[in-house]
Write the structure tokens for this entry.
Amino acid sequence: MSASAPDATVKPASGFRLDLKTVGPLLALALLVLLGISLNENFLSYSNLTNVLARSSFIGIIAIGATFVITSGGLDLSVGSMAAVIAGIMIIVMNSLIPSMGVTWGVVLFGMAAGLVVGGGAGIGNGLMITRGRIEAFIVTLGTMGIFRSLVTFLADGGTLSLNFQVADLYRPVYYDGLFGVPWPIIVFALVAIGGEIVMRRTAFGRYCAAIGSNEQVARYSSISVDNVRLLTYILQGVLVGVAVLLYVPRLGSASSTTGVLWELEAIAAVIIGGTTLKGGYGRIWGTVVGVVILGLIGNILNLQSFISPYLNGAFQGVIIILAVLLQRGRRAS
Amino acid sequence: MSHAADASAPPILAASRISKSFNDVPVLFSVDFEVRRGEVHALIGENGAGKSTLIKILSGIEQPSSGTVMFDGKPMVLPPNGQAEAMGIVLIHQELNLAEHLTVAESIFLGREIRRFGFLDVEQMRAKARSILETLHVHVDPDTRISTLSVADKQMVEIAKAISRDARVLIMDEPTAVLSVGETQTLFEQIRRLTARGVAIIFISHKLDEVMALAKRVTVLRDGQLIATVGTEVMTPDSAAQMMVGRELTNLYPPKHEPDVDAPIVLSVRKLEAPGVRNISFDMRRGEILGFAGLIGSGRTAVAEAIVGLVHRTAGEVQVNGKPVNFTRVAQSVSAGLAYMTKDRKGKGLLLNMGLRPNLTLLTLGKHLKAGFLDFSSEQKALDRAVRRFDIRARDPSVAVGRLSGGNQQKLMLGKTMESEPDIIIMDEPTRGIDVGTKQQIYHIIAALAAEGKSIIVISSEMQEVIGLSHRVVVMREGRMAGLLEGAEITEAEIMRYAAGIKQSGNDERISA
């Protein structure tokens, strides 16, 4: 037994496996693009691609928040219902301000602010129950998922909340217009993604998220305020749901009990497809972005071809999610 | 003591020239062991002497690297995964293996449920459980949930479970470690009843008085070697302690430099009380190495965690550099210059899925921020420094630290702790499970830190280590300070006497100035 020889257990093969892990989602994306091109020559058209990306950006922005939550070992199932409630409250706030403020950008800005505040508040609620209340994240957010969903149904009185059409006209460019031909949702999604990547990689907060998700005890023994970091991830998630809804409301100008249904599923799926570990401890934002685009392209490709019914979109997404997790586990076992 | 054992009876279970290695590290060297019908055979030795490995081999959980196990006089390969229970060899683990949510009856018949027409025969199992408990004189209702039982009662349930399996050999790993004196007496009565029925018992304990009271023969292991098997009638607690530890100190340890007598007191603890900790008082000087010895579960870690604020203390006072402190978060103790290095490398010390760099700086990430963002090059410099200073060897620093050897993990954890530039360091089992070469390196690092003026508490279950390093030694027993040894008093036999409760310090509050 010599004094700690260099570890022979470190096999050179590990480098190769790491590459595969990184390349996996990109490979899947490339395959989808090739498939799309072979099926329809319009696939690569600028209008088709911006359309796909703009529609994906709501899920994308939410999924970036979910990446932080999941990396730190948490889970937020309430994001879809939360989005619906935020949309509903934004519409109510804007409609109720019109008599006093008229149809102005002021009304829209108030509505946006309300959206962010409600999102942040919902995140604080989730986060406090999970950290201070010591209740499982799964249970808390399953509960708030039901609460938010029924709240929007109540606010809409079982029907649909519609934004005053004049304000909707004013607000509409936020979804449909853009800068240099790139729609606003894509620009915001890109900015949030870049910001998220920086926060995850280059800040203490990002490092702490991974540390807590990897082993909460180690984090605690390393003088990290585990509860505060956890709480912050849920607040960030809430605010980002708010941001997504700011871009979503001008698209349809309405909210109902079916708004944002299954968004939580798509957001979590995108995170997992992107290579973030479901149990926490490792997360990557760019992977989530790739995951979101993969999900968006699957739906798009199904719409562009005529062999398989586009109604099977959900089934394809489901298969992809299960495959992604299976691949993750396979890597760990090897 | 009446034993049904017949000295001439053939052994039920015997091990002959058993050796065992884990990953080329030998832990048992050609050990012989046997137990006869109706006999209590005690197995003693320091932590790491190979007791656990031996009983794992005797119960089939591990297979020997060489040598044979004989059951009823016939050599055989015991089936793994506890299937040896069906043959009548039952191991009761120290941390009892009961499902907390089941009832007593369900636990006793777990895995061997009585069925009627394919359905569980709950009535019959309950009745049988009751009758077994009655024969053992255990007053526990078969419908009680395990989670509501005391540790002692849980142990009785384990014994009842073993009886229901017609155990012929019962192996008990430190059954009394968590029991009170009264509960221990009840357990002993139970054991005597079992031996009267012809059950053979292998009994592991650190408490020599118990061993003397209960066992007919004692086998002493040390460093994986069989030292002796002797009858308790020719043994004294002192001679047992000598056999367990009797070994020359080598130059594994660096020479000790006593701290100056007028060195200032940096840490002062008075009448500290916390869960599992009673009335702890001691002082520590600048440049001193203070050893904490004692058995596993004697409260040493609890003292450390109460001092640094991982656990809230319920009473008492702690002073750092003369100032009273009451840490409620680890961050506070770290910024006061007091760091605790956990004994649980993998569970509490290191993020096993991450590389060396994030692990090293996790405790002190604030030092590596530039305009709010992590400065990777500053982190890398810290890692380069730590790798040189602590001789951390990893071919690739991006490799997950879970894949490093225990020694390199330990040195990385030491580096992480020292990143906070503490003046007082509490090292909990700093050399647990690492090879002897790395141990020596760590001992020299500890001595060098003390020579620099750091004050170090070394908590260790290896008495060698405590003696080889410490200027003074606190011996803990059952959450209290059993003794505080200085100078020539620091011997293994003396520590063992305090730790095993043979000797008790007359004055609990004895404090060295």
